[in-house]
Amino acid sequence: MFAYRAAPRLLGALFAAFALFSPALAQEDPRAEQERLASYIQHNPTDYDATYRYVLLSTELRDYEAGIGALERMLMFNPNLSRARKELGFLYARLGAYELSAQHLRNALAEGGLDAVQVAQVEAQLPDIEKRTQANRLYLRMHVGLRAQSNANFFPTNNLFQVGGVGVASAASRKGDINSFQLVQAAHDLDFQNGRGDQLETRVTGYATEQFRLPQYSVALFAGSIGPRIHIAPDLYPGLSIKPYLTGAVALLGGSNYLNAGGAGMSFGAELSPNLWFEPGAEWRAIWVNPAPGYLGSLGFSPYSTVSTLATGDVVTGYLSSSYRLTNDLRLEGRVAYTRAWAGNPQQSSDQVDVQAMLRLEVDPPFPIIPRRWTFAPYGRFTHLAFDAANPVINPFVARRDTVWIGGVMVDLPITPYLGFAGNVEYARNDSNLPNFKTDNVSVSFGPTAKF
What we know:
Blueprint: H1 2-21, H2 30-43, H3 48-60, H4 64-77, H5 82-94, H6 98-111, H7 116-131, E1 136-149, E2 160-163, E3 166-169, E4 177-191, E5 199-211, E6 219-233, E7 237-253, E8 256-273, E9 276-289, E10 313-325, E11 330-343, E12 350-363, E13 374-390, E14 399-414, E15 419-430, E16 439-451
Antiparallel strand pairs: 1-4, 1-16, 2-3, 4-5, 5-6, 6-7, 7-8, 8-9, 9-10, 10-11, 11-12, 12-13, 13-14, 14-15, 15-16
């Protein structure tokens, strides 16, 4: 029970980080300043600097309609203000009016009144905005690089094991390693064009690593899902949708097939406001696990099959994901899930509670010519895993209980509209009640990215 009570510490720590990363909250009465500027520009419509300050403040307050009104009033007095047209296009995009947004941005480029930095900003955003106006949309992200780990073989702390309840000290030890990795993520949306916003969503992920010293721990994962997102009552509740979907995955370990999974799920999307989004859902998967690829013991099966965390069986997960934009620069994301796994052996059947949270902080890059903002995202994860029964191979009297803590920071540093760099620093610790599974690991990864 202590592990369950400890979960809120994770959210508390991230809210503390929010306090550190959001100086914008310290503004003194921004609404009063917005009202003062609104009154001023109404009587001085040609004071463009004051109007741009008003638009910037309205954007920070997420009062996009007010900013749009001020910019359209500027263009009534001077239709050739390219910067005003650019800002107007970006604000329409925030409201989801992508056709109108793309039209204003194209006109801003055609008028030729933007400087090099402004042109770069438009050219970086316009392809994504134009893509959202199409019925057939494909998004692709690739990330390659190197990853270093302090405990690549997941060896127990202090080299201690239990076998049949008897403690054994291993002569071997943990090993650090470096691996190359490749990540490809593809998303395809097919708009049904029925006037409701319904669409078919397909998501595919491929991930592979190649360990330099420990090739037996090289992995490859291919996963995907497909299903229609149907808006339930677009006229009354435009942000409410339902998505039934099929899902599947294949994983390889050391070059041999390790896991196959397939199933189905259903989620409900609820956009309560432009800043707050929830998605509760449930998913079932049937999984098959090869407990030790490429290895069979003298009896024709692997002894590892009785101590593996994963086992062939059925898995049901219920979850709640959410996202809340605290400011224009800061967003809090979270996920809570409960998973029940049924395996052939009760010592491999388990209950799992998982809590995740992340703060995404967007900052301006150090050079204005870089068109996209940079992202720094501290995150944390808490997992408690409880098995139904003791495993006699390890300890016949103690059922396994794992408490996993993970913390780290991800960075995304775009340099051009399509290319950039990304990295991650992470510490993971498993406080298991059995020494066989008590581990910790520090990992650092970095490499180039491409986005299309």
